[in-house]
Amino acid sequence: MTNAIVAIKGNGAAWPTLLGQGPARISTGGKIRAGIKVLTKKAAENPKAKEIYDQGVAAGQSFEQIEKILSEALPNLKTPLVPKNVPWFTVRGQDFPNPEIAKQILDACGEDRGDGVKRLYRFPVVFPSDMWQAVMPHELAAWGASEKKFWSEYAPDGRVRYCKCYAPVPLDDTGKRVIRVFGGRKTTLRSENGGLCDPESCGEYQQRQCNLSGRFIFFIPGIKSISAFELHTNSFYAMNAAIQKFETIAFMRGGRISGFLDAKQTPFYITKKLMEVPHIDETGHAVRVKQWIIELDAPVDVTALLRANDDEETAIVNAQMASQILEGPATVGDAPHALAPIDMPATQIWPENGGNEVPVQSATARADSKSPQAPKTPSRTRVAGINSGPSLEQVIEAAHSYGIDAARYEEYADRRWGSGWKINAGGRRGALEELERYRNDPRGYLDKIDTELKVFS
């Protein structure tokens, strides 16, 4: 059986490949950490442990490396390091394939706030995707000594959350030899609890072995790297607040959060804010504690984002109307993109005729009499739409090519971006760009639409 070549409209042929069938992922090459790790009280009392820790920090080693050295040198010390919440981010050379990048980040964005040490308190970022789920992936996960044991994953319908784990490695017929597995280890549903992820009835979650884990994936303007950087966080409050800001900016920009936010090349900023966050203590009482929480900031005039694309379209229409008024009605055949003349009423009231109505030849009729064989041209609105973004018809046609009914697509788009996306050039452009991102996976896009409509219903 030979592999078929699938023709994609407007993009030639898409070749099926062995390694290109999975979902697209953004490669990362370096970590910025949200805090630091310090010696436990017991470990700090050990002079050798303190010496190893100080040497590792001075050498720019990662905390994992320091912890490994401590465990090897002092095996009696279990978990010698604990996380500490601080107002700055940690940037170490050992967390990057090229340690020089860490220095570049600190040189470009670091601050000395009076203690003589240059640290990273706030830095600009741009996100490489318009889907916030792609730039802030997160899950519930339980880790073993060397690998992830269990993790949460949603069903395609977006309603059921499953608990997944790695499937046992298969053996051959003799039961003695492992079968080589292609494409990485296979996954399966966890046998307990019917494979469902239910934190309230999960032993790992109740014992704090399974926790919420997420990361931001981004680029830093001015730092040259083909791979993105990542910032891990376990904070529900940080991720929930970021989702709200992503959705707000996406609504203002016609569905876009990637790249710079405006023509002034304004980026997002990641910083920290001291907040009081509630949690339930061991006795079941709600208590509030102060913590430095990661905050996503967008220092941009959001009202300007609403008008950014409309102003361009309005300027084109106004310029064309002014030209017609000053120069008179243009003949339709004068130029390949000439505008259709503005129609005038069939009769007008003239003071010179005693205020009586007299028939007036319309601009269209005059143009037709001058150029009886002039070809039809699009209206002002149509030309303006072409110059400033795709038309609504183009977006609907692209959706129809995926097998999506026009009414269903408009219902999805209205719920995703608001009904204004149809009349906003940026909104239409964002909708078409989203369709183009799924040109190799139309089935996945249909599932996405079904899921979002079910969620909002």
Tell me what you see in this structure.
With 457 residues, the chain is α+β, with helices and mostly antiparallel strands. The chain has four domains: 31-121, no CATH class; 132-300, no CATH class; 307-379, no CATH class; 389-456, no CATH class. It has 14 helices and 18 strands. The radius of gyration is 30 Å and the shape is globular. Residues 1-13, 330-358 and 360-387 have low confidence and may be disordered. Pfam families: Gp3-like. Residues 352-382 are annotated as: Disordered. Residues 359-380 have a biased composition (Polar residues).
Tag the structure with descriptive keywords.
alpha+beta, 7-stranded mixed β-sheet, about 35% helix, about 450 residues, globular, 4 domains
Write the layout of secondary structure elements.
Elements: E1 6-7, E2 13-14, E3 28-32, E4 36-39, H1 41-44, H2 47-58, H3 63-73, E5 81-84, H4 100-109, E6 111-112, E7 118-119, E8 123-125, H5 132-135, E9 138-143, E10 148-154, E11 161-166, E12 187-189, H6 203-206, E13 210-218, E14 228-233, H7 236-252, E15 268-280, E16 286-297, H8 302-327, E17 347-349, E18 357-359, H9 363-370, H10 380-388, H11 392-401, H12 406-417, H13 425-437, H14 442-456
Parallel strand pairs: 3-14
Antiparallel strand pairs: 1-2, 4-5, 6-7, 8-15, 9-10, 9-13, 10-11, 11-12, 13-14, 15-16, 17-18
Helix pairs in contact: 2-3, 8-10, 11-13, 12-14
